[in-house]
C-alpha cells in the first residue's frame, strides 16, 4: 500500500513538473499585418524562472551561412510589460542582448518589430506577396536557457499556406528547445505544393512559391532517388519527416536538421544542363542533414549564437558535400559516368586557375570564411567548395586502392556519423577525421592531409592512377588547362575501382 502511495505521489510530482515546464515555455505571436512595410510585429510571453536579471538575445548569424549578419540592427520599438501591464525597463546590454530585471515567476510580455526587407535565404523577409521567417533573425530568446521549449502562432495572415519542419499542434508551431526553433524556417504564402513521397516510411515534402512550369512528377521521382541513395550510403534516416522549402528564385540554400530552405528555378529542369545543376544543388543541400548537421566539427555545436564559430573543417562539411553530389547522383542513375568525370575536370580547373592557391591553405579558407566569404576572394584566397572535393577524391581513391575496393570514403562518413553523432552526440575533433580515414586506408595519410594544411601542389596522378586515370595539363591561350583521361593499360583493380566509382 505504501509503495502504491509513493508511486501515485511521484506521478503527481512529475505531472506538476511537466505542467510547469509547459507554462515556462516561450510563446511567440507573429503579426503579419505590416507585410507591406516589410515588418514582422512580434510578441513574446515568458515566465521568468529566477529573480535577478534576464538577458534576451538574438543570434548574430545563421548556422549554415558563415557570416556575421547583425540581426540586432533590424530590431526596433522593443518594449516589456509585466502581467499587470506595467512597463518594465529593457536595456540594450550588448549589441545583440537586452537586459530586464525580473522576479521568479513574473510573467513578461516583450514586443518588438523586425525590419525584414532583404530577400535572401539567410535572412527573414516579408512583403505583400509572402513571408519568410528565418528564425535567427526574428526570435529573441533568454540567453540563460537554451533548453526552453517554444510555441509560435501567426495572426493577421493573408495567405493560405504555412510550411515548416516545426511540429504543428492545434494552431501553434512547436519547438523543443532553442536550437530546434532557430533551425526551423517558416515560409508563408500562396504556395505550390508538390506530391509528397515516402522513403523508408518517412514522409518528404516539397513546397514553395513561383516554382514555374516544369515536369514536377519527374522532378519528385528524381528527388526521391536522391534521398534513397543518400540514406542507403549512410544506412540510416534520422528524422521523422523532411521538408524542402523554396522561397522563390534567387541564389543559395541553407540546410537544417529536418529540412532545407532554398531558392529554386523550375525552368532549369527543362534543359539537360539546367537539370543537372538543379539536382546537384538539391543533392548538396539534402546530404547536409547528415554532413554538418549531424556529422559536424566540434566547433559547430553547441552553437555560439553571439559570435563567430570558427573551424578549420569546412572542407569536410562543405567540400566533401560537393564531392558527394556526383557520387549520389551517379548511383541514383541521374548522372552518367561521363558527366561525373566532366565535373571532376571542372573542379580541378577551377581550383588550379585560382592564384589564391599560392597564398591560402584549405584549412585557412575554412577558418577565414567569416572574413573572405564562402567562395573566397578570387586571386587572393581559395574556397573550400573548390579544394575540399579534390581532397575527397584523393581520400576515396586511396581507401579503395588499399582495400581492393572493399572500403571507400563512405565507410569514413558512416564511422563519423555513428561514432560522434549517434553514439557520443558531439562534433568531431579535427584530427579524428584523419584517424578515421587512416583506419580504413590502412596507411599514414599525411601527404593527402598536407594538402589541407600547406600550399603544396596536389599530385593528382599519384592517386588518379588507382582508378586507371591520369590528369594531363596543356597550355591554351597562355592558360594551363587540365583534362582527365584513361590510362592506356589498367589492371583488374583499377578497372574495378573505375567501374564502381563512375557507374
How much beta, percentage-wise? 15-25%
Dominant shape: globular
> How many individual β-strands?
24
Instruction: Give the strand order, joined by hyphens, for the main sheet.
Output: 5-4-8-2-1-12-15-14
CATH topology of the domain at 25-190: Immunoglobulin-like
User: The biggest beta sheet, please?
Assistant: 8 strands, mixed
Distance between the termini: 69 Å
Can you give keywords for this protein?
single chain; 503 residues; alpha+beta; Immunoglobulin-like; Neutral Protease, domain 2; eight-stranded mixed beta sheet; six-stranded mixed beta sheet; 14 helices; 24 strands; 35% helix; disordered N terminus
Description of the structure:
An eight-stranded mixed sheet has the order 5-4-8-2-1-12-15-14. Strands 17, 18, 19, 20, 21 and 22 form a six-stranded mixed sheet that branches. Helices cover 35% and strands 24% of the residues. It is built from 14 helices and 24 strands.
